[in-house]
Each structure stands twice: as C-alpha cells, then as structure tokens.
Amino acid sequence: MTAIIFDTETTGINEPEVIEAAFLSILNPFSLGITSEYCQRFKPSKRIELGALATHHILDEDLDDCPPSSEFRLPNGIEYIIGHNVDYDWKVIGEPPVKRICTLALCRHLFPEADSHSQSAMIYLFRRATARDKLKNAHAALDDVKNCRIILDVVLDKMGATQETTWEDVWLFSEKARIPTVMTFGKHKGEAIANIPIDYKAWLLRQPDVDPYLVKALRGELS
Prior knowledge:
Helix content is 35%, strand content 15%. With 223 residues, it is an alpha/beta fold. It folds into two domains: 3-178, Ribonuclease H-like superfamily/Ribonuclease H (Nucleotidyltransferase, domain 5), CATH 3.30.420.10; 179-223, no CATH class. It has a five-stranded mixed β-sheet.
C-alpha cells in the first residue's frame, strides 16, 4: 500500500483537529483498484465549531466513545496521499512526510473552463445524471474519498494515463498544476504572473509565508 485517497472531517478552521478520517488504498493509477477501505471517528480535545457542524453534522456527543484525535496515524508505507485540496487534510494530521497529489489543482489545470472546481461541482460536471445521489452524504469522509476517486479517474483519463503511469508521474503532474499562472490577490489580481513587474515580484518574494507554489511561479519555475 503506497497511495491512498484521503479525507478528514474536523473541528473547524481554528487549529482544527480530526474528528473523522477515511481513505481508500489504491492499487495503481491505471486501474484505480481498491485494495482496502478505512473510516474512523475520533474525539477531539476541543468543541466543534458551529460552521463545521453545519457542514458535516457530526455532533460532539457522537464522539464520546471514540479514540482521541491525537491517536490518528497514517498506515506504514504510505508514499502518496490524494485529495481535493489535499493540503488541508495533510496539515490537520501533522504534515507527515508524504507526497501530496491534489485533485483540486489538477481539475483547475485540466478543466479551466469550469466556473467552479469544488469536489461537488466536479461530480456534477463528470457524473451529472447520478450526482445528486452521490452527493447526498457529501462531507462524510468516506463518501468524499469515493467521490474523489471518481474525479481522479476522469483526471487520469484526461492526462492519458497508461499501464506504465506511476504515482510518481501523477505527483509530478500535480506539482506542475499547482503552480499558479494568474495572481489571485493584491493590486495585480487577475493579471498573468508572467506579466507582473519585476519589482513587485521581488517585493512579494521578500514577504513572509508566501505560498511555495506562488514562489515557484514568481521565479518562473513552471515545470
């Protein structure tokens, strides 16, 4: 087991803790065969925020008999985790030393014409006839990873994946897709990063906590 599609539900946006974690172990990028399935709830050390409750509907009292959030660990041998906005889930579980494949970035790169690239929007784009049924339990971690697998299947087909395609190939493609080409904030919002004045790029690079993929774009590291 080296690659999993992974998702969490959490206590909210302020120093979030895991309250539900789920994954599918995936055989290879060509078949996407599922070798195992996991879903477990956890009891956090803090109250669940109202905004989070409104999203996943998991109540604090539902978790009274669950193991503590601090006990969650990825299985041994995991090299790649796959998810829609995967960095959020990766950070929640303590930023383990694994490579992240982001289906959100891949969808933005491969389907730029879509007006939304959320996981639910992509399910409507790719599986319109069955989307409402598939999304009935959206924001339940196991349902989300199953929907992410559908998205990954379409993405890999769009990429032209073959029997020779490896998870390393997919990760490298994802890394390239994550490098922005257009500014999303500031006085140059909406402009192509390639056309932004050099002095502004230099100023931005000196700022703290700049997204590492934006740094690559500002430096012209597009591959």
